[in-house]
Amino acid sequence: MSGGEGKVVCVTGASGFIASWIVKLLLDRGYSVHATVRSLGDPKKTEHLLALDGADERLSLFEANLTEEGSFDSAINGCICVFHAASPVQFVVDDPQAQLIEPAVKGTLNVLKSAAKVPSLKRVVLTSSMSAVTNGLKLPGSGDVVDETWFSDPLFCEQNKLWYHLSKTLAESAAFKFSKENDLELVAINPGFVIGPLLQPILNLSSEWVMGLIKSGKEITSDGIYRFVDVRDVANAHILGFENPQANGRYLMVGNLVHSSLIMKILHKLDPTLIHSDRYKNSNCVEPSFSISRAKAESLGVEFTPLEVTIKDTVESLKEKNLLSL
Fold first, then answer.
1. Per the domain annotation, does 41 fall within a domain?
2. Segment 130-150, tens digit of pLDDT
3. Is residue 324 assigned to a domain?
4. Cα-based torsion angle of the residue sequence 70, 133, 238, 293 in order, rounded to the nearest 10 degrees
5. E strands of the chain, at which residues?
6. Nearest to 13 by CA among 97, 161, 91, 125
7. pLDDT (tens digit, 9 = 90+) per residue, 299-314?
8. What is the pLDDT of residue 117?
9. Domain containing residue 111: CATH number
10. Structurally, how many domains does the chain consist of?
11. Is the pTM of this model over 0.90?
12. Which range marks the domain in which residue 112 is found?
């Protein structure tokens, strides 16, 4: 335990994959945590948080709704930082405005409005996404190094029906605008495809993808290139983004940019019985034509977990929770 004794912080959407790890690491560091969930009556949202070390003494749960202004007031009151991780993650939607864009943008502004009311609050750390970085008029190409100066274009996202990407792009933009106008310090963490061990009892979308790749070799990107990052590194980056006084702006969080064939080979080496698809056994690992800078994240103090460790821990976690039926 170190660093957080006597300090109170808030984590929104605390039952989620990344947010649960933020709560855990904050408790491990001695912080007192106000954690918001959509429903206090849903044990799948609360039990794994209440079971964390330090939760009995230093974790308080609050119910809050992203689209309800003032809903986060009680949770944020008395805090010195808000880690805003609550945002819908869906890639197939019937009504993108209602299902994704409104809760992402309005929810972010509602959290920031609550934060702006608290004199003790020093900084907000926002969970953004690489989706808000690389979907612009200029797409990453051969020899490009993507860094924090790259921004997705809302019109491009809308024209290509990239609704999740649009929601994250608009939410991040609105957050920086509001923070500047209201004298709030804002740090944005932009993770890629987040994998790693689960704390919550149910599958999140990225874990579902890992299972799909193991069972059938099913891809979710057309080129098979993935921007992987360990969930524990992402959670740690959030906390470093608060604790480091010099932290500012955006931080891209991509530990490895790799082709799915490499993932399959790592999985095969880990456990040959895992792989149900043969199509990767003789395939060559395709090298991505561009790269994503880790420099700013590493300057924050992030030490990226090796990909092999992340994949091993992901699989072990899925097995432990009886979610990986082979």
1. yes
2. 999 999 988 888 899 999 999
3. no
4. -170
5. 8-12, 32-37, 59-63, 81-84, 123-127, 145-146, 185-191, 193-195, 225-230, 249-253, 256-259, 291-292
6. 125
7. 999 999 999 999 999 9
8. 96
9. 3.40.50.720
10. 1
11. yes
12. 8-194+230-254+290-302
